[in-house]
Amino acid sequence: MLLLASGACSSRTSNFNFDSGAWKSDVHGCEGKRQELQKELEAIRLDLIGLKEYDIRSLFGKPEAEELLDRSNKSYVYYIKPGPKCASFSVSSETLVLKVRIDALGNTIESAITNSL
C-alpha cells in the first residue's frame, strides 16, 4: 500500500526525456538552448495533452506570453527560437513558439509548435 501511495505522488512529467533545466534557463530562447531541445520537445509534445497546468509550469517554467481565450481557456506561449526581447531578434527572422492551450479546469487540451503567435 505504501508503494501505491508513493507512486501516486510522482509527476507524470518525470518520465519525459527532456532537459527542463536547460529550457527554463534559456528565457525567451535567447541563448539557443531551446532550439537544441526542439527534437526532444517534438517527441513529447503530444504527451503534454492531459497534463495539469502546474505540470506544464513545472516542466517549462513561466510562459513568455499568456493569451486569454473564450470560456476561461488560455494559451501559454514559449519561444523556441529567439523572441522579440532577445538582442539577436530580427523582425525578418522566423519566430518559432510552443503554444500550450489549457482549459478552464487546468487541463492541457492542445500543444503545438508553430511559426507565429
From TrEMBL:
Where along the sequence do coiled-coil regions lie? 27-54
Q: What keywords are annotated for this sequence in UniProt?
A: Coiled coil
* Superkingdom assignment: Bacteria
Q: What is this protein called?
A: Lipoprotein SmpA/OmlA domain-containing protein
